[in-house]
Task: inverse folding
C-alpha cells in the first residue's frame, strides 16, 4: 500500500514555541492531505483538509492562525503549531488521499506526539 | 449526539471467541463506510470497507444497513493479535468531503 511518513515522530517543546510537523506521501502523489488530532482515549478529530496549491479548509473550532497548514507540493504538507501551549499536547496524525474528491482509502502517517511543557 | 457512535467497550473475550461491534451514524448523506484498526499509540490502519451487500475478509465480516444507519463488524475465531481499538469511519460529501471517526471500541483477546 501507499506509504505516508511524518516527521518528527515525537517532540517536546516549551510553551510559547512553534512546532512544525511534516507529512509526506512517499510513493504516490496525494491530491488531498488531512490533519487530525487525537487526545487520549478519544477519536480522531479532523482539523483541516489541505489541497495542493490552495488554502486549507479548517474545521469549525480550529484556529487557522494557530495551526498553519502549507501544502506546497503533491507529496508534502506541513502543520505548524504556533505559540504552543500545554493544551495543544496531543497526537497529530496526517493522512493522504488518492482519487479524491470521491472518497477512497486514506493512508495515514505514523503520527507525531507533541508534548508542550 | 456524536455523528458516529460506538460502544467504547472494552470487550474482553477469550481466544477463539466470536465478537461483534456495532456502530451507528446520524448523517443520512454519508456515502462511504469503513472499519479501521488502531493499536495503542499508533496510527489507524484500514481493516475493511463496508458495503451494503456485506463483505467478508477472512475472519472479518462487515455489514451496512443504510435504512437503519447502522454498521457492524464481526470477528470470528479471535486471535490475541486482534486486540486493538476498532474505529468506525464514515465518509461524506463530494466537493469537500469529510471523514468522521467514531471514538472506537476496545477489544482485548485473552489466552
Result:
Amino acid at each position: 500500500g501507499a506509504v505516508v511518513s511524518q516527521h518528527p515522530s515525537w517532540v517536546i517543546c516549551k510553551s510559547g514555541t512553534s512546532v512544525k510537523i511534516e507529512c509526506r506521501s512517499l510513493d504516490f502523489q496525494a491530491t488531498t492531505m488531512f490533519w487530525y488530532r487525537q487526545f487520549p482515549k478519544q477519536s480522531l478529530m479532523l482539523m483541516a483538509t489541505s489541497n495542493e496549491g490552495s488554502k486549507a479548509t479548517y474545521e469549525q473550532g480550529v484556529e487557522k492562525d494557530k495551526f498553519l497548514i502549507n501544502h506546497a507540493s503533491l507529496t508534502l504538507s506541513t502543520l505548524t503549531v504556533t505559540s504552543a501551549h500545554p493544551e495543544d499536547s496531543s497526537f497529530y496524525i496526517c493522512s493522504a488521499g488518492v482519487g479524491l474528491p470521491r472518497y477512497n482509502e486514506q493512508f495515514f502517517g505514523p503520527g507525531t506526539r507533541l508534548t508542550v511543557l | 449526539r456524536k455523528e458516529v457512535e460506538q460502544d467504547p467497550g472494552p470487550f474482553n473475550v477469550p481466544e477463539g471467541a466470536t465478537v461483534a461491534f456495532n456502530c451507528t451514524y446520524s448523517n443520512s448523506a454519508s456515502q462511504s463506510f469503513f472499519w479501521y484498526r488502531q493499536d495503542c499509540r499508533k496510527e489507524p490502519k484500514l481493516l475493511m470497507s463496508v458495503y451494503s451487500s456485506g463483505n467478508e475478509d477472512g475472519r472479518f465480516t462487515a455489514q451496512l444497513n443504510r435504512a437503519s444507519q447502522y454498521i457492524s463488524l464481526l470477528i470470528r475465531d479471535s486471535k490475541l493479535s486482534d486486540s486493538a481499538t476498532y474505529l468506525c469511519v464514515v465518509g461524506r460529501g463530494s466537493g469537500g468531503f469529510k471523514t468522521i471517526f467514531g471514538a472506537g471500541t476496545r477489544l482485548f483477546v485473552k489466552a
